[in-house]
Amino acid sequence: MRKYLAELIGTFVLVFVGTATVTIAKGSTLTIGLAFGLAVTVMAYSVGSISGGHFNPAVSLAMLLNHRLGIKDFVGYVISQFVGAILASAIVFDLVHELGLSTKNLGQTDFPNISVGGAFITETLVTFLFVLVIVLVTSKKWGSANFAGLIIGITLALMIIVALNLTGGSLNPARSFGPALFAGGSAMTHYWLYLVAPLVGAVLAAGVDNYLGSEE
């Protein structure tokens, strides 16, 4: 249960800090990318030693496929991640309401400016790159335990900066579900893409990681 609580807390902080930066601080693209990236870094160095610091169902799926995570823990991790994201979005919703701002903007992800195909490719690609970095930098064979949290945070920030104006830069099914649940509208209608594309990216990353020989 400690591992699941660590995943809940880590995902909560990721979604709360990231989406609050979008909705309350009204940050720039750089600021938003850094907010999500630094949130992951901080949580990786604080609770990551308890659970491995996934905070993302796509990451957990790659770890499952590469036999670093059992099926029971995979299910527990994913449930915890979604609960953390929902709780974070509930608090952001309340704070936005308290400020008298529109609760239709809760930092949800969507793709109003590009096609479904373009959005799917974007989310798959950035998630693939992000998860590939994670599985490589945390591998026992070639990993860098001391710097893993920092490298992962920087990578997430970069991927979000690239994808923010295309798809919102999710890379994480739980991160997209929380805001979409409260904002509704097209964010919820299009949620399937933010569920499927990151998981496809994670599967590809796990396969490339195995091909590169980083697994024991």
Overview of this protein structure:
The protein is mainly α. The chain contains ten helices and no strands. α1 (2-23) packs antiparallel against α2 (29-46), α4 (57-65) crosses α6 (116-137) and α6 (116-137) crosses α10 (191-212). The protein is globular, with a radius of gyration of 16 Å.
Strand content: under 5%
Question: Over the alpha carbons, how many angstroms does the gyration radius reach?
Answer: 16 Å
End-to-end distance: 27 Å
Structural class by sheet pairing and helices? mainly alpha
Helix content: over 70%
List the helices and strands and how they pair.
Blueprint: H1 2-23, H2 29-46, H3 48-51, H4 57-65, H5 71-98, H6 116-137, H7 148-167, H8 173-183, H9 185-189, H10 191-212
Which structural traits does this protein have?
single chain, 216 residues, mainly alpha, 0% strand
In short:
This protein has 216 residues and is mostly helical. It has helices at 2-23, 29-46, 48-51, 57-65, 71-98, 116-137, 148-167, 173-183, 185-189, 191-212.
